[in-house]
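Q: Structure for this?
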Amino acid sequence: AQSVTQPDIHITVSEGASLELRCNYSYGATPYLFWYVQSPGQGLQLLLKYFSGDTLVQGIKGFEAEFKRSQSSFNLRKPSVHWSDAAEYFCAVAYGNKLVFGAGTILRVKS
Amino acid sequence: NAGVTQTPKFRILKIGQSMTLQCTQDMNHNYMYWYRQDPGMGLKLIYYSVGAGITDKGEVPNGYNVSRSTTEDFPLRLELAAPSQTSVYFCASSPGGEGNQPQHFGDGTRLSIL
């Protein structure tokens, strides 16, 4: 069955530090992968997506993610975190016309 | 751009009451979805629709019903509210197609059953 694992429930980083959020997926075919961000009281906003081609994808707000088929991973990165990046981040894999989401990682940014 | 609009934003229900959560989209998307979000659990798919007149169950459909009479609207019905249905509900839409084009989300309905 398709599944997505985000191993870190909470992550705290200092403002200006680099960030990596982990995501592992289980899917038999070529995956279509997404990262979404949710600010408090808001809906989910798409950060970036991987469909095919270049395994390093760029998204909005300075985020990028790298698809590694051998590790079944799609980790999200940002070189320098801003206080406004504090939010919950969800990784998702598509199958058919549905999405399976991970449980989310809450990012806290300390000044 | 309105995108996906959900109403109401907040609601408190008593056990056994019924209500309909409204969702409408103005992007002419064929695919629409209802999720519930509980702390630490991510989003779970309740029902989805691939077009007007076509609906199907997701992962957690029990206690809910849907209909899709138009492309724009996809209401979610709770018939007999139970405390376990306390959650945040999100509606989403997508154009569909290969690779499941990204879903667009509404801002959610926060529902408490007391």
